[in-house]
Design goal:
The longest helix is centred in the middle third of the chain and has 20 residues. The protein has an eight-stranded parallel beta barrel, surrounded by four helices. An eight-stranded parallel barrel has the order 14-15-16-17-18-19-20-27, surrounded by four helices. Helix 3 links the parallel strand 4 and strand 5. By secondary structure, the chain is α/β, with parallel strands linked by helices. 30% of the residues lie in helices and 20% in strands. It is built from 20 helices and 28 strands.
């Protein structure tokens, strides 16, 4: 049963990884418990965890007998082959009286509508990456009753969103954190074929790296390895921020550790409710610290933590894994080989008799790149609003000049990958004044899609994570005209996705891929550390920071808002398999061009124009194509 402080509902939400743990947690001082089934959730990587259907039913009965709630995580992205399984599973969860489900994929929300699932509350997962007011309002309109806020959100913003929308909010208060913004990490998928959005993250954020910039090497060890969240001493601030549910992370933790943790937090909440004036924030804090898995941080709750967010504590084996074991080491992105090409041909290859015109689009970083695209007859340009330094976004005068010379080229505005309230205001004002100059918008989050889809031609970008036809249906009903395929789509999944696509589809076919998107500023390392040696970057300018491991160098670009964008070392190149991906729904092929020089971009565009004009020549063109990075890769299609 939830508690109350000044009529504000407070729920301590505890994790459970299996039935043995649950039987102990249900007796602990918590109000609700979350758990996952044997599939379709974000903790699929370890054996001996998660619940069978029969165990879920038993757990719900036990919890309800103790006046507690059970929420089930249906929080990974679904592929099309899992749609029927998900529909059956949702009906089962409803039949055993589960109190709520936690979802990432809006395809699941669409399924709930179609399957008339009404007795279960729907909560957005942290992996839905809810980060602005428009996003929250859109979810509320669709019947979601609780929003798990982005891990990068401060408590002041959390309070504003809750006050303005009335939706229950959930906030992480203790446990494992990511340095990468939620659902915006694709590294594990591209390098190892294991998707962090599908419950199989191999944690490249906890690999060892050196930072390198300006010819200097800096002595970082684990520059992406975040500390654990710790809000034990800030329960009053969480309540003041109107947070309803206080979430403890740890479904994979051992039972004794979790039970003690839950009881300690539960006791603290009870003490504060009972006697706030004499409340001791520090009581039991030292015990929590002594028994910690990693060092502690309040993350983004009060401000951007900077490098203080990064863990420096070793765990037994000298590694940062909560299990004390290493299940992943630096891995090179897979190169294009004859074997890989044959595999794609076998899994993806289709024969098409259509003579449809394929469009070529390019995402650009500056005016000069845009002008080059027009000169070369590119059909569509995306102007990035997150511009990599030292470039700046073009002035209105430059934009108007570009429009006057664009001929048949369409010009779209590409929105920031994440948009806080300030950025939402900036974009609203800009579009009010200059929106008529654009042919459409490349949108990156649900709030913007809901707001703009009735005013502009809207295309969803790849980080919207459309991975199945139900998610595409969801966005199509909002007015989306075209959808970009998730860059995590594997070769064995792409044909089914394309077959059932209800909207025209864009596929990213070339360029280094942005596989991490961070509020963490890795460039700060170069300002606070002294270099230990000198070494030039291998493939990008020395002005660009790279993360160096024993498997290569990944460049990290910084934009005008200090967001960091980590890219693959290799260039995605689908040129040699273009003949195999001639799907009816595939309308446009995109080049990710932001990180290229003008000369590099010219070569790439010219080759793909030739290839799309005659796909029988793609393999020959590929043989003549020299990479300017660490090599070529087929990305997730390799797997």
């Amino acid at each position: 049963m939830a508690k109350y402080f000044n009529h504000k509902k407070i729920e301590l939400l505890a994790p459970s990884g299996n039935m043995d743990t649950f039987k102990q947690i249900v007796k602990a001082n918590c109000d609700a418990i979350y758990l996952g089934g044997k599939s379709l959730n974000m903790r699929m990587i370890r054996k001996g965890y998660n619940f069978s259907n029969e165990e879920i039913k038993e757990a719900v009965n036990m919890a309800h007998d103790s006046d507690k709630k059970v929420y089930v995580t249906v929080n990974n992205m679904l592929n099309d082959s899992e749609i029927d399984e998900a529909a059956e599973y949702l009906h089962y969860l409803e039949s055993v009286n589960v109190d709520g489900i936690i979802v990432q994929d809006l395809g699941v929300v669409q399924l709930c509508k179609e399957q008339n699932i009404k007795k279960i509350e729907i909560h957005s997962s942290v992996m839905m990456n809810v980060h602005n007011m428009d996003f929250v309002k859109a979810l509320k309109e669709d019947g979601l009753t609780r929003v798990v806020l982005s891990r990068e959100m401060d408590l002041k913003t959390a309070k504003l969103l809750q006050t303005e929308t009335g939706v229950e909010t959930e906030y992480f208060m203790h446990g494992d954190m990511c340095s990468v913004n939620g659902a915006n990490c694709y590294f594990s998928s591209i390098a190892m074929g294991n998707s962090s959005n599908r419950g199989r993250c191999f944690k490249p954020c906890r690999w060892s790296y050196r930072v390198k910039k300006d010819g200097n090497v800096y002595p970082t060890e684990y520059p992406l390895a975040a500390k654990d969240m710790y809000m034990y001493e800030h329960i009053p601030e969480l309540i003041e921020a109107n947070v309803t549910s206080f979430k403890i992370e740890g479904r994979m933790r051992e039972p004794g550790f979790i039970v003690d943790l839950v009881n300690t937090y539960g006791d603290a909440i009870d003490r504060y409710i009972e006697d706030p004036l004499s409340y001791d924030r520090k009581k039991h804090a030292e015990e929590l610290y002594e028994n910690r898995k990693r060092d502690f941080s309040t993350a983004y709750a009060f401000s951007n933590p900077g490098l203080d967010f990064i863990n420096t504590r070793y765990e037994g084996t000298g590694k940062f894994y909560s299990t004390g074991k290493v299940f992943s080491t630096p891995t090179e992105e897979p190169e294009i080989s004859e074997k890989a090409l044959n595999k794609v041909h076998e899994k993806v290859g289709v024969e098409s008799s259509t003579t449809k015109t394929d469009l070529l689009s390019v995402k650009v970083n500056n005016l000069e790149q845009a002008q080059l695209c027009i000169e070369l007859g590119v059909k569509r340009i995306y102007l990035a609003t997150e511009v990599f330094l030292p470039d700046t976004f073009m002035t209105v005068e430059q934009l108007r000049s570009l429009i006057e010379t664009k001929k048949n080229t369409e010009i779209y505005l590409s929105l920031p990958q994440m948009m806080d309230e300030l950025q939402c205001e900036l974009i609203d004002q800009y579009l009010e004044k200059q929106g008529h100059l654009f042919d459409g918008i490349l949108a990156t989050n649900l709030g913007s899609i809901k707001k703009y889809a009735k005013k502009y031609n809207v295309i969803t970008d790849y980080n919207v994570n459309i991975y199945n036809r139900k998610a595409m249906d969801y966005y199509k009903k909002l007015g989306v005209k075209e959808s970009t395929v998730s860059i995590e789509m594997k070769g064995c999944e792409l044909p089914t996705f394309m077959k059932y696509a209800t909207n025209p589809v864009e596929l990213i076919v070339h360029g280094p891929l942005r596989v991490m998107y961070l509020d963490l500023d890795l460039y700060e390392n170069t300002r606070v550390l002294d270099p230990v040696e000198h070494e030039d970057n291998q493939f990008v300018n020395n002005e660009v920071l790279v993360l160096k491991s024993d498997k290569g160098e990944s460049p990290v670009y910084i934009d005008q808002n200090k967001k960091n964008h980590l890219f693959t070392a290799k260039e995605l190149c689908l040129l040699p398999v273009l003949q195999d991906i001639q799907f009816e729904s595939l309308k446009s092929y995109r080049i990710e061009g932001q990180t290229y020089s003008l000369d590099e971009l010219r070569v790439v565009i010219q080759i793909y124009k030739k290839a799309l004009n005659d796909k029988t020549k793609t393999k020959k063109l590929f043989e003549q194509f020299a990479t300017t990075r660490a090599g070529f890769t087929l990305g997730a299609l390799s797997f």
